[in-house]
Amino acid sequence: MSVEESICEPEKAIPLPENRVEENSKQSFRKKVWEYLEKNKLVNFPRPAFGRIPNFKGAEKAAAKLLDLEEFKTARSVEVNPDKPLEASRILVIENNKILYVPIPKLQEGLLKKLSFCYDDKPKNIKQIVTRWGIETVGKSVDFEDDLHIDLFILGSVAVSRDGYRIGKGKGYADLEYAILKEMKAVDDDTTIVTTVHDSQVFDSLPNDIFNKHDVPLDYILTPTEIIKVERKLSRPKGIYWDLLSQRRLNLMPILQKIKDAHASEGRDTTLKEVDTDVETEEKRRSIKAKRFPQQRPKPDKVMQENGITNSVDNQKPRKGRFFRRTRSTQVTNENEDPGNKENSATQMMKKKTRPFRRNSRRLQVDFSLVVSNIDRNVRVRHLKDALIGHGIKPNNITWRGYKGFCYLHYAKPVKKEAADKVVEEKPFAVDNVIEILQTLKLNPESTTNLSVKVMEPITRIETTDVTAV
User: Fold this and answer.
1) Over its length of 470 residues, how does the chain's per-residue pLDDT go in tens digits?
2) Which of 214, 275, 373, 383 is the 20 to 30 Å CA partner of 259?
3) Residue 159 and residue 30 in contact, taking contact as beta carbons nearer than 8 Å
4) What does residue 215 show for φ and ψ, rounded to 5 degrees?
5) What is the end-to-end Cα distance of the chain in Å, rounded?
6) For the whole model, what pTM was predicted?
7) Do residues 385 and 470 make contact, with C-beta atoms less than 8 angstroms apart?
8) Contacts of 315 by beta carbon, 8 Å cutoff, 6+ apart
């Protein structure tokens, strides 16, 4: 059942979010898809799917249908976006001895990365090569001046229609990548444009008036169950439309500034739009981030600047790093003492007592703790935090030993203060439910082992020195 069909049924309708958006807009269709995928648990890590190209379940099956396309068989060079659900597509490109091009995320440090291997030197760990780390490490940078041609263009989508319209995550990176390649003559009307999505991301039709001249249409839509060929080709972008870009966008993407200078020298109109409509999107992104991470505070310098206070050079203090190492001894010298008096300096150094390294001496009341083992060594604590928050089992603190394959989750019962001397405890945790959810978590999609969870002995208080707050 597609998202469109499910929304039409009142008993299965997806509830609208608190921040309502305009109906029949791109953002409204994005929210419908994201909410449907999350509600029906159709997405893998990373989660939640909101604000992303969803890593839908069945992405490998959808990518496997590339092998049935004649355009893929005859293609020599293929560009695949760096989104997580397209990882299987990137693997197929290398396995079939084709040249792989991957856009640099957000185009902030270049345009493309090229990965090309001969039959003899093809790497065995292709899955690692096609990750963002592998692409950054092994890939060769491609600039605007380089000569190349792309036969097949594979990009991720949030929502698509059977008549070839596509909606991305709203940042416009895929459209800009195609426009830049068009200016390079790296793509043309013969370049096949493909996307892979879940069946529920496919709509029978989308409103034509929400799409503009810069939106990239599709030729093929691959799902885990079918291949959808768009019979009537839609018009494609002719290149970069400078009147749709702001100066802020050029500041973020140096390659756009380089192309703009080249076009200006040719006498082409490169007038940018005066009003930056992307600022609203940026403000929404910051507000969402502030809600997800309320513990973050603005930097003192920024607060002072916003209030019209200038911080002089004399008053500036060196910023402390998040992690630092205290030396065994610190030599303290007096400005008025003789620098040559080494005996006096050494005496002061011996008298100076070294303080032990303590990150935080605060104590935390703990009601129960869980030991989570069988953690892959390549999993980071941020992966665990995202997975826990996505399942609504956020602990109070985490003691991370992921490099040893385990960690501790500490839980404290919430309390509610009703009066100065009266404290009422909320309902206790359902420990069995937490353990059941943890045992089904997959922190690494490639892992075949499940997490092992055990309850620790009751601990009254723990030191937060080695504990990471969630």
Assistant:
1) 555 544 433 333 344 344 456 677 899 999 999 999 999 999 998 888 898 999 999 999 999 999 999 999 999 999 999 999 999 999 999 999 999 999 988 777 778 899 988 766 777 788 888 888 888 888 888 887 788 899 999 999 999 999 999 999 988 888 989 999 998 899 998 999 999 999 999 999 999 999 999 999 999 999 999 999 999 889 999 999 998 888 888 888 888 888 888 888 988 888 888 777 654 455 455 555 555 555 554 454 543 454 444 444 444 445 555 555 554 544 444 444 454 544 444 444 444 445 554 444 445 567 778 888 888 877 888 888 888 877 777 788 888 888 888 888 888 765 544 444 444 444 445 677 778 788 777 777 666 677 888 887 655 444 444 444 44
2) 275
3) yes
4) -75, 135
5) 37
6) 0.57
7) yes
8) none
- Amino acid letter at 170? G
Contacts of 261 (CB under 8 A, 6+ apart): none
Please classify residue 337 by burial: count the beta carbons closer than 10 Å to its beta carbon, then call 0-12 exposed, 13-18 middle and 19+ buried: exposed
What are the structure tokens assigned to 146, written together? 């380089």
The alpha-helical segments, DSSP class H, found in 70-159 are 70-74, 87-95, 126-129, 132-138
Q: How far apart are CA 168 and CA 212, in angstroms?
A: 13
β-pairing, 166-167 vs 159-161, is antiparallel
Distances in whole angstroms, Cα of residue 283 to Cα of each of 108, 117, 255, 289: 20, 43, 24, 10
